[in-house]
């Protein structure tokens, strides 16, 4: 498990601005910071991919290098992940992409809820590396349901889950339900509250990016 804030970096500033109630009303700034965080995590993930030797002809000679042997498939969980996903796409600009509409249903009286899913578009995932991209890992239910749905498109060789803000309960649930998944996280917060929202968290990432919903 990789946690970005385990080491101090400029990412601390991006996360701090996303949390700050005095800056959150600037939705463009929020989206940009989420995109930047996606770029940083994508870079960290890129270090763990497989590479193969390659030669590049320059105006003066041939340069030897190593290039990614297989691009990952980026999986965006709509709608909140769109800016975060864009950061990954900025880095893995040749990647295939999948999109899933998964979200919390209405909370019951005891604040529990079911995960609803009403959209899924994906390429063949057989023997590929997939990166599930979701800015908020709270309970982990939507990620698990999304992963199970993706398996109908083929069994990936490697599964990576990337999240910006996470709760320890959600991390534990993912490790229990998808033990093969590798986690690349922005930060791990204190806990979930009684409504299953991350504390201190930052609020609803989708609303902060694109405005409120009914």
What does this protein structure show overall?
The chain is α/β, with parallel strands linked by helices and 214 residues long. It has a single domain (2-210), classed as Rossmann fold (3-Layer(aba) Sandwich). The protein is built from 6 helices and 12 strands. The chain has helices spanning 11-19, 27-46, 82-91, 141-150, 168-177, 205-210; strands spanning 2-3, 51-57, 62-68, 73-78, 96-104, 115-121, 129-133, 136-137, 158-166, 182-188, 191-192, 198-199. Strands 1, 4, 5, 6, 7, 8, 9 and 10 form an 8-stranded mixed beta sheet that branches. It has a two-stranded antiparallel ribbon with strand order 2-3. Helix 2 packs across helix 3. The model has no long low-confidence stretch (mean pLDDT 94).
Provide the domain count: 1
Q: Using DSSP, what is the number of strands?
A: 12
Strand content: 25-35%
CATH class: Alpha Beta
Give helix % range.
25-40%
Summarize the structure.
This protein has 6 helices and 12 strands. The chain has 214 residues and is of the alpha/beta class.
Topology:
Layout: E1 2-3, H1 11-19, H2 27-46, E2 51-57, E3 62-68, E4 73-78, H3 82-91, E5 96-104, E6 115-121, E7 129-133, E8 136-137, H4 141-150, E9 158-166, H5 168-177, E10 182-188, E11 191-192, E12 198-199, H6 205-210
Helix pairs in contact: 1-2, 2-3
Keywords:
12 strands, 30% strand, 8-stranded mixed sheet, alpha/beta, 214 residues, Rossmann fold
